[in-house]
């Protein structure tokens, strides 16, 4: 789909004193409600007027969208201004603001987390050229400009519940390239019974397993696919223990883009099934995650595929951070005291922390949470690096939590930094503790998390028992993936079902025993 830059002009209609016109790009001249919800999400205006490519203004009702006027070329733009002025005069608007440069994109540059060098964005630039693959970059934004029109009030008026409601804080230039799957907006449950059982004041469970491909990784992959489409990449590639792969294949499929995915042999069947159904070109590597990673890096270089490896691609963390933005908004612009996050590659905890930092930078929340990184005992190189203060040393991972079974975490620096800067800590849990958290979450909350998805909760249980967190604390964790992705682990931890003959008295006897 071809995309054409659209100039925009806004007008205030009615009771509001500000309007922001947002120049945008829309795909193929199609204007639909879905596009508008994402694009005009942060305009606090009551009506929207569109000028189509023939110059006829289209008017949409306020319940569908907010307000914006846009047109494709200078002549039409002038015409739109005239129409706007007329309407503004008629409705008593106090001010018209025209905007001449794109305002949906606020990335100011990239900064190396190792040497601190700053870069302007460039198509091929993913890691710091001076530091190599170790030089992971941070995406920086012009927050002062964002603040001018991205406010709590504006968000409150935004009907879009997907994570694109935070578009000004995301590195996506062309909203017309956003893949259509609905991502984010996951529920935050106030698990009162569980909180009481564990002895903490409040416990919030963010269930990200409800995303389209059933994991938090959808947040990152959707940003990756939007950027791949913008860069006109012929395909996307990644290596993954499962979830990043299935989410990338899903988002790519929804946008009509091919994907080349490398998974290690030990990826659970359900994740492989997802890849096959999403039509990915799939390679099961007879080797580890690290081997799969190297192969995918090679293909990105060799064939010019868009590289979605979150360990090195700085933009993916920007998708992941939306989980924290949502959490703050769901808690009425507050952060929990502690946030427990399962750590594998280190990208998720880095993203979650960045989200909270940005919410405070914008003044949306007052205090930051302590970040607690939870690793599986059989794969805890990030925890070791945090403890020793020395560079990460690769390990050979052994844990049933496949999504965090990472021996060479690419993003360990950001993961260590998140915990250190927040004043939190790292801890490890055994596979048994992970399985028991899985059962606890299912039984107490009706949420089915995969092993890595409940590792944060396993950390909370252990931390509460060991008095690592105060009883008055508000604690939160993110269920990063749905349990249906790995039923083998679930069956392992659960009680056996009752195998019965068709015999009423037999059933009666068993149920009586259960009810006792
Ligand atoms: Zn560097």
Largest sheet: 6 strands, mixed
Bound molecules: zinc ion
What is the total tally of β strands?
Answer: 18
* Uncertain segments: 1-73, 91-102
Overall body shape: globular
User: What is the mean predicted local confidence, pLDDT?
Assistant: 82
Radius of gyration: 24 Å
Strand order of the largest sheet: 9-10-18-15-16-17
Oligomer: single chain
Tally of alpha and pi helices: 18
CATH class division of the largest domain: Alpha Beta
Query: Under CATH, the topology of the largest domain is which?
Result: Rossmann fold
CATH architecture term of the largest domain: 3-Layer(aba) Sandwich
Tell me the strand percentage band: 15-25%
Helix content: 25-40%
Main structural class: alpha/beta
N/C terminus separation: 64 Å
Domain module count: 3
What does this structure look like?
The protein has 516 residues and is of the alpha/beta class. The chain is globular, with a radius of gyration of 24 Å. It has three domains: 1-103, no CATH class; 107-181 and 212-316, Rossmann fold; 188-211 and 317-493, Rossmann fold, CATH 3.40.50.1100. The strands form five sheets. The chain has a six-stranded mixed β-sheet with strand order 9-10-18-15-16-17, sandwiched between helices. A four-stranded parallel β-sheet has the order 13-12-11-14, sandwiched between helices. It is built from 18 helices and 18 strands. Zinc ion (ZN) binds next to loops. Zinc ion (ZN) is lined by residues 112, 114-115, 117, 128, 130-131, 135.
């Amino acid at each position: 789909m071809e995309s054409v830059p659209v100039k925009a002009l806004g007008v205030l209609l009615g009771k509001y004193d500000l309007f922001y016109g947002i120049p945008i790009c829309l795909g193929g001249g199609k204007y639909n409600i879905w596009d508008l919800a994402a694009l005009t999400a942060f305009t606090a205006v009551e009506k929207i007027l569109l000028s189509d490519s023939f110059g006829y203004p289209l008017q949409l009702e306020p319940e569908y969208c907010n307000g914006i006027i846009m047109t494709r070329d200078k002549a039409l733009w002038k015409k739109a201004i005239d129409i706007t002025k007329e309407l503004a005069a008629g409705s008593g608007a106090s001010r018209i603001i025209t905007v001449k440069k794109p305002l949906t994109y606020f990335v100011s540059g990239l900064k190396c987390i190792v040497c601190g060098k700053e870069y302007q964005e460039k198509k091929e630039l993913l890691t710091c050229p001076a530091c190599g693959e170790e030089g992971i970059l941070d995406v920086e934004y012009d927050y002062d400009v964002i603040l001018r029109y991205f406010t709590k009030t504006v968000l409150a008026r935004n009907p879009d519940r997907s994570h694109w409601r935070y578009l000004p804080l995301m590195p996506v230039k062309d909203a017309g390239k956003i893949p259509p799957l609905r991502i984010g907006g996951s529920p935050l449950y106030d698990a009162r019974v569980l909180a009481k059982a564990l002895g903490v004041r409040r416990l919030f469970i963010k269930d990200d397993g409800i995303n389209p491909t059933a994991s938090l990784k959808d947040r990152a992959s959707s940003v990756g696919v939007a950027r791949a489409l913008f860069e006109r990449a012929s395909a996307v590639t990644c290596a993954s223990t499962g979830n990043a792969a299935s989410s990338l294949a899903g988002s790519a499929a929804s946008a009509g883009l091919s994907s080349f995915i490398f998974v290690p042999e030990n990826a659970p069947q359900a994740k492989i099934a997802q890849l096959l159904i999403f039509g990915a070109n799939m390679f099961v590597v007879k080797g580890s995650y690290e081997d799969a990673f190297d192969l995918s890096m090679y293909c990105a270089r060799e064939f010019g595929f868009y590289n979605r490896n979150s360990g090195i691609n700085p933009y993916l963390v920007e998708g992941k951070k939306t989980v924290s933005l949502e959490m703050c908004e769901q808690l009425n612009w507050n952060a929990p005291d502690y946030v427990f996050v399962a750590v594998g590659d280190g990208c998720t905890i880095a993203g979650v922390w960045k989200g909270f930092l940005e919410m405070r930078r914008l003044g949306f929340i007052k205090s930051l949470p302590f970040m607690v990184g939870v690793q599986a005992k059989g794969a805890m190189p990030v925890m070791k690096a945090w403890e020793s203060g020395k560079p990460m040393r690769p390990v050979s991972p052994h844990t049933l939590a496949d999504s965090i079974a990472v021996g060479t975490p690419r993003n360990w620096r950001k993961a260590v930094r998140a915990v250190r800067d927040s004043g939190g800590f790292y801890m490890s849990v055994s596979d048994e503790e992970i399985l028991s958290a899985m059962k606890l979450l299912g039984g107490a909350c009706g949420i089915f998390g995969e092993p890595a998805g409940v590792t944060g909760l396993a950390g909370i249980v252990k931390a509460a028992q060991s008095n690592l967190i105060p009883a008055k604390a508000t604690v939160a964790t993110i269920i990063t993936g749905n349990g249906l992705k790995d039923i083998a682990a679930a069956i392992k931890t659960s009680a056996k079902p009752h195998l019965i003959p068709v015999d009423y008295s037999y059933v009666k006897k068993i149920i009586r025993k259960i009810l006792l």
